[in-house]
Amino acid sequence: MIPNTDYVVVGSGLTGAVVAHCLRAANREVVIIEKRDHIAGLCYDKIHKPSGYRYHVHGPHAFRTQSTVMWNWLNSLVKFYPFKLRIKTLIDEEFLVWPPSRAIIKEMCEGQANFTFTGIPANFEEASLSKMPYKVYSKFVKPYTEKQWGIPANKLWVGLSGRFQVRDDDADINLFSHRYQGLPMTGFTGLVEALIKDIPVIFNYDFKYKENQTCFNKKLVYTGAIDEFFEYKLGQLGYRGMSHETKYYEDGAKHKHTVPIYNFPSSNPKYIRSIDWEHWQSPETSHENTKDKALISYGFPKKPTSSDEFAYPILIKKNTDLLEKYQNYAKEKNSSVVFCGRLADFRYYDMNHAIARGLGIAQEILQKDYKGPVLADGKI
Q1: Which of 136, 147, 194, 316 has its CA at 20 to 30 Å from residue 333's CA atom?
Q2: Cα separation of 358 and 11, whole Å?
Q3: Which domains are seen in the chain, by residue range?
Q4: How far is the CA of 271 from the CAs of 45, 52, 324, 373, in angstroms?
């Protein structure tokens, strides 16, 4: 039973935790409802006991932001150490840097690196082909994308292609170019713990609005799937899931990666990526006793069988049209319920965007009483 409270936040992922933190900082009464048995949502991490490595249970998360305000605020909660994500993709039995550089593209295309598509792209495939020739796209992008999403690349949202850029500098093999990049010393679980310090959390509670309409006096902040909130009344949105299998190898040498993540675009193996957690550890942490071992996680794309497995909103027209109907329906039904977060907004948020969304919602709720950081326009 949820105690009657002024503000109830459903979900303790980054967006929900940030909203709850800001409410508490403004001396508001708030309680968090969590469906899982742990905080931090999909960015939950923990220590693997045999190795001592911290690993991300639900898949890898690398924080980055352009905002000095956001970076300084987060570091006031927990200290971050530098970490720049690097990825290699298995192409024709060779691991090549992802995303490819213009030099690699020219080499693969024997000097003919003309773009395949010109004009205004209408979908992910056309947008990708405006950045590279089809030969490169067909090896690096198309098979990986369709393995990840389970649908043809030409059906996906055009904006999804903005998640990668062809590299101009062949020597720069970092995936991102953000000004600030790093990982929390205490992990993302530690970051969320710092955010929701002194806020009560009710675990293992599958929140149903019909059963809990009177549990809050002022606002309900809901970060779960918006279609599930309304019991799929208008239909079900499409999501993609990802299961992870983590293995500890005593004979680690042959399993170690040269970069934190390897991608596998082809249909074999079944996993789409492998993560070597040795690369993710704080430089201040000694792992001398496990230097010959390896802790590797494997990610398997899947169709979710329950909302617990919703990870990636599938951004195709059918879903975005249905989302608009749910958003309009939500406005009509109850103005005291606020929807935010990757699932509630049905948006492919990165961590910086999830945090910024939480700060924005807190500002809207608290108005003049808001005491949190204010992000400069465009600086996320």
Answers
A1: 316
A2: 12
A3: 5-82+183-237+315-369 (3.40.50.720), 87-163 (no CATH)
A4: 20, 25, 33, 40
SS3 content of the chain, % helix, strand, coil (to 5): 35, 20, 45
Backbone angles phi, psi at 141, to 5 degrees: -105, -55
| Token representation of residue 65 | 């932001």
- pLDDT value of position 291: 80
What interhelical angle do 187-195 and 68-77 show, nearest 10?
90
Question: Can you name the residues that pair with 33 across neighbouring β-strands?
Answer: 10, 202
Angle at 95 between CA 90 and CA 100, to 5 degrees: 90
Judge contact between 340 and 223, C-beta under 8 A.
yes
DSSP secondary structure string for all residues of 318-344: HHHHHHHHHHHHHHHH-TTEEE-SHHH
pTM equals 0.96
Token pair recorded at residue 33: 């409802």
Residue carrying structure tokens 């045999």: 50
User: pLDDT over 70 for what percent of the chain?
Assistant: 100
Looking at residue 101, what DSSP letter applies? B
Model pLDDT for residues 20-74, shown as the tens digit of each residue: 999 999 999 999 999 999 999 999 999 999 999 999 999 999 999 999 999 999 9
Distance CA 300, CA 230 (A): 29
Dihedral, 249, 254, 258, 262 alpha carbons, nearest 10: -70
Helix segments in the chain, DSSP class H: 14-25, 68-77, 102-108, 124-129, 134-136, 142-149, 187-195, 226-229, 317-333, 342-345, 351-366
Residue type, position 128, single letter: S
Please name the helix (run of DSSP H) or strand (run of DSSP E) that holds residue 201, with its range, or none. Answer: strand 201-202
